[in-house]
Specification:
InterPro entries: DUF488. It is a single chain. The chain is of the alpha/beta class and about 150 residues long. It contains seven helices and five strands; from the N terminus they run E-H-E-H-E-H-H-H-H-E-H-E. The chain has one domain. It starts with a strand and ends with a strand.
Length: about 150
């Protein structure tokens, strides 16, 4: 199984869609809580869905069950929680949601997890992959589109 990840910030639309197209992914799975962000116009749900299909022939899915809740995000954003606190809370949320049993492995294979953070090492998409690797017997190959 191979999973790609990408963050849309610090990328132009051209850079973003070129990375997606060259990777050969089948679909982009949006793991953001709010997929109507104004940070990048091209990354808003309806526009993103259109551009992915028109430019890259790639499907788009918004997977809210893989997104952190506001109750987890806000304390971290307000510097009330550390990055490690955020990680612990997010991994607990994934366990409560039982994503390892509800998530279709076939859907995830050759897909690209999308979030806003430019670097994967400071984004929950990295924690999601870590969680799945710990709960699935499959080896997951990861490629970050940077």
């Amino acid at each position: 199984m191979k999973i790609y990840t990408i963050g849309f910030t610090k990328k132009s639309a051209e850079e973003f869609f070129t990375l997606i197209k060259k990777s050969g992914v089948k679909r982009v799975i949006d793991v953001r809580r709010n997929n109507t962000s104004q940070l990048s116009g091209f990354a808003k749900e309806n526009d993103l869905k259109y551009f992915l299909k028109a430019l890259c022939h790639v499907d788009y899915i918004h997977a809210l069950d893989l997104a952190p809740t506001e109750e987890i995000l806000l304390p971290y954003r307000h510097k009330e929680h550390t990055w490690q606190d955020f990680k612990k809370d997010y991994l607990k949320l994934l366990a409560e949601r039982k994503v390892e049993t509800t998530l279709d492995k076939k859907l995830l294979d050759n897909s690209c997890l999308l979030c806003g953070e430019a670097e994967p090492d400071h984004c929950h998409r990295e924690f999601l992959i870590e969680y799945l690797q710990a709960h699935w017997n499959d080896k997951i190959e990861v490629e970050h589109l940077i």
